[in-house]
Amino acid sequence: MVVPRLTTLLNNSLTVSQAKQIHAQILINGLNNHLAPLLVRQITLSTSTHSRIVAQAQYLKLILYQLQNPDAFSWGCTIRFFSQHGQFKEAFSLYVQMHRLGLCPTTFAVSSALRACARIECRIGGVLVHGQVHKYGYCSCVYVQTALVDLYSKLCDMVTAQKVFDEMLVKNVVSWNSILSGYLKSGNLAEAQRVFDEIPKKDVISWNSMVLGYARVGNLDQACSFFQQIPEKNTASWNSMISGYVDCGDIESARSFFEAMPQRNNVSWITMIAGYSKCGDVESAQKLFDQMGEKDLLSFNAMISCYAQNSQPKEAIELFNQMLEPNVNVQPDGLTLASVTSACSQLGDFKFGPLVESYMNKFGIELDDHLATALVDLYAKCGSIDKAYELFRGLRKRDLIAYSAMILGCGINGKAFDAIKLFEEMINSHICPNLVTYTGMLTAYNHVGLVEEGYQCFNSMEDHGLVPSADHYGIMVDLLGRAGQLEEAYGLIRTMPLQPHAGVWGALLLACRLHNNVELGEIAAQHCFELEPDTTGYCSLLANIYASVKRWDDAKRLRKVVGERGFTKIPGCSWMESI
């Protein structure tokens, strides 16, 4: 009686709580080996929210590890579950463990492992699984072969992808779409067009791939032509066009497609929010976010990222706190924490760094390179340079953003020679610097007063196709001014190809105060007064210059202005705020 009753229950969708109750009955009645595979299967088939998926994943692993007689079916179902829900590293790790147990993997375990390797671009893992495809005789399985085509396509190894594709005895539309996607990803539109023309029966994904492929390379006319020819457009068709216009910076055309959509999904809204974020229109992004119905994790991530990327860190943190409230209860992921960490970095709020670890433990979030880089930036800017270095050295792949964050951190914290060493390491790794990198380098030279080296660094920006911003000029003026080269600093300002802001003139005024240069101090102060008339701190600086040369009446006059209007601090260096 117990077995039929439990079997019936195992044919229904289960919550984790229900699964635990059934599991308890299975264990009590000594039916673990008989019914555990069915329990695993049913848990993997049950529809869940994001928070339930995390709980399901943890519970599935618990069941697997407690099986006295591990079976390929249970392990295969679990691997497929992890792969289907984006936990690709864990999926591949489970596949490796399954192999070590000596179990013969099922075809869906193999295809799921290949899918995981494709998503994390793990070539070595993918090639090893490919070898097992031959070992276990799965070369005729269309699902496994299609997964192989998808793997090599995502690795941009189109020679191998095409070879596997040509060897397939049976091809379905997914196989064709995989090879098509590979050529589009590698930018080979001619081959993509050839494959598209040869597809015996195109589906909407085939058409959407072509739309997205041409949109990615900026050929929106051709993308639009394909879009208009799609027999039955779906939401993804419209989203492809919106994404294309967003990537090209044409937010108005993107909005027109968005408004014309017969039906929108969260991707539509998120793509538009990201588009407005990219062009700095936070207000429009906020309006769209507020208009959304049910907001999921990706929606919150898009808006938090928008705030963080557009210098509104307080709003980013407020929204993060809002998503954690019991009535909202959206569980954050690594991307959420990375954006909030970036916001805290802008505020110089060191306290959030240790909090990240507690959030990671609470929500089961892995420290990936993206989140680690955000923490490098936070710790470096807040003065904890050793902690930043520890995280930086632990990165699997050090990219431009990671190097720039570390170089800037060294620059801010006066570790000029560390910054120089990192810059050389970055160049030797064939990573081209950007404006933030040079901000860090110039800051480093400024901290230790290396004028000639700073000038060489400043001039080398042109070698990398970079045009110095007013902020970079401001650092150079500060460097020259502190070294007493006031005329050279003033001359540099006069040769600027763009309008100097108050930060540039303020740097010269500070240098004039340091070296008691009245003539240039008056010129610099006049420009500061015009650009920031409400900041009385400039009056105070000029008054101090007058006092240093005993021009007491002028000093008294300016101090009276400060007394009447109240003292207003000179804003922190604008080149720092822009990072």
Query: What's the number of helices?
Result: 35
Basic shape: elongated
**What radius of gyration results from the CA coordinates?**
30 Å
Q: Percent of residues in beta strands?
A: under 5%
Number of strands: 0
- Could you estimate the helical fraction of the residues in percent? over 70%
Distance between the first and last residues' Cα:
68 Å
Largest sheet: none
What structural class should be given to the helix and strand makeup?
mainly alpha
Mean pLDDT: 87
Structure at a glance:
The protein has 579 residues and is mainly α.
Describe the structure.
- There is one protein chain.
- The protein is an all-alpha fold and 579 residues long.
- Helix content is 73%, strand content 0%.
- It has 35 helices and no strands.
- It has helices spanning 2-9, 16-28, 32-45, 50-66, 72-84, 88-100, 107-119, 123-135, 142-154, 158-167, 173-185, 189-198, 204-216, 220-229, 235-247, 251-260, 266-278, 282-291, 297-309, 313-323, 334-347, 352-363, 369-381, 385-393, 400-412, 416-428, 435-448, 451-459, 470-482, 486-494, 502-515, 518-531, 537-548, 552-565, 574-577.
- Helix 31 packs antiparallel against helix 32.
- The longest helix is centred in the first third of the chain and has 17 residues, at 50-66.
- The N and C termini lie far apart (68 Å).
- Residues 572-579 have low confidence and may be disordered.
